[in-house]
Amino acid sequence: MNDVSATVLVLLGLAGLAAGFVDAVVGGGGLIQLPALLLGMPSAAPVQVLATNKLASICGTSVSSATYYRRVRPDPRTFLPLMAFAFAGSIAGALVASQIPRDAFEPIVLVALVLVGGWVLFRPTLGESTALRFSGHRHTVAAMATGLVIGFYDGALGPGTGSFFVITLVGLLGYSFLEASAKARLANWATNLAALCVFVPQGAVVWKVGLVMGVCNLVGGYVGARTAVARGTAFVRLFFIVVVAAFIVRIGGEVFGFWS
Prior knowledge:
Its main location: membrane. It is found in: Cell membrane. The chain crosses the membrane at residues 79-98, 104-122, 159-178, 190-215, 235-259. The protein is mainly alpha-helical. It has one domain (6-255). It is built from ten helices and no strands. It has helices at 6-25, 30-40, 46-72, 76-95, 105-121, 136-156, 161-173, 177-199, 207-231, 233-255.
């Protein structure tokens, strides 16, 4: 029932490629992939769409995480607790994913994106360089709380997770956009893995679609991470604003019924 034609598979692959690039630079690739999967697999159950999206996403976050780690060298004292609590939060979110009304999330995500986009747009110096807000244990606790809360959201629904990681690491912890993107990729890899630990035993993954999109997502993630590292913080900030604006238009259109 979830078998797709070659044409649809190619189109889903292109969506995975674009999502991988966007996700590697500023996060939010799920806002490209999930609608594509919903269109390409109209008969699939919601949990199958979420699970297949996670399989595709982890391919891209694996290669972009490795690229960022080699080139940016993020501090393990931050990214390890961030990853650990993001993993735990995502497990919890995935376990309750089927019990949360999806309609409640879109308005919340829309408001958050508008606030985040406006904050970044009207504070041009935000994220230009790293100026940590906390030190010692307070910094670690802030990283763990970020991982737990955003990880839970990713396991339960997911779209925009990478962008929320980036802006929280910039706005709350004080990292530059480039360093925040590096840590966000590592945390997002952990949340994807955690969700798959729940979804795979349930038999929810549509493997053919997920693997094809995953290969394309991997290529997009590799190109996106290298582009972000080469262009630096100014490019990541500008790309973040453009992507968030596009997401606001897309989600806002759905909330207010413009696309129906």
